[in-house]
Amino acid sequence: MSYSQCGVKSRTGLNRNAGPTNWVEGGSGSKVSWTLAGVELDEVWIGDLEVNLALDELDVYVWNLSVDTDDKNGYQHPHVGSEGDICWGDNVIAAVAYHRAGDFFALKDLMDNLLQTYNAHSPYISLDEWVNGVGESCYECGERYSDDDLVWAEDVEGSLCDSCRTYCERCEHYVVYRHYDSSWEACEYYAANYTLECATCSDKFWEDDLTAMPIAWFDQPGSTLPLCYRGSWR
Ligand SMILES: [Zn+2]
Ligand SMILES: [Zn+2]
Ligand SMILES: [Zn+2]
User: Fold this and answer.
1) Cα(148)–Cα(135) distance, rounded to whole angstroms?
2) What's the gap in Å between 191 CA and the centre of ligand 1?
């Protein structure tokens, strides 16, 4: 028999497709399933739930038939894990007792009630997260993403999603796409710090691509002028 507690947050999510195939028929394999339609918790739409119960083992799997749970870490319901495992909480005692007594209808009632009750103290995800999605929002576009899909960017001091960030090979970090200068293939900061104007043609070049032409000013001996390969001060 297996029961889970919501307090333990599983991050194995996003594999709801693996769900029903995890189903293991044990012993005589008697199991029942039913659909609990139109579940709402505190006026938040949760959806139709398919409840599967293996009578021998008191194994329960609950699948959400209505809602895409990708942005909910795969949780099927605020009190159901990503692998369909229901959080019994304190009700585990009653569940075990009904199960031992073979009182299927009482057990079913208990589960239906459980799935239609929101306990704000111990959900896998809160109703707010259920509605808005878990994770953080991207600093730039404001869309919600799971933490794994966001990358911290120092230039905006915020997390950025894949479509709002560009990797700067020069400094080996991400910047928000609008701080990336594709003509230099570098972030603006790097381009600003490591490019110079050629003293003759006024085009900009990478510092390293310019030649330092020694020039003797009256008051600044040892000065140089940056010159590009086209520069002809000879
Ligand atoms: Zn974004
Ligand atoms: Zn950079
Ligand atoms: Zn030049």
Assistant:
1) 9
2) 24
Query: Do 39 and 108 fall into the same domain?
Result: yes
Rounded to the nearest angstrom, the distance between the alpha carbon of 17 and the centre of ligand 1 is 27
CA of 186 to the centre of ligand 3 (A): 21
Q: How far is the CA of 155 from the centre of ligand 1 (A)?
A: 14
Ligand 1 centre and the CA of 24: distance in Å? 41
Could you tell me the distance, in angstroms and rounded to a whole number, from the CA of residue 171 to the centre of ligand 1?
21
pLDDT tens digits, 28-69: 568 889 999 999 999 999 999 999 998 788 889 999 999 999
Q: Domain boundary residue among 132, 148, 167?
A: 132
Cβ–Cβ < 8 Å for 145, 135 = yes
Q: What is the pTM of this model?
A: 0.55
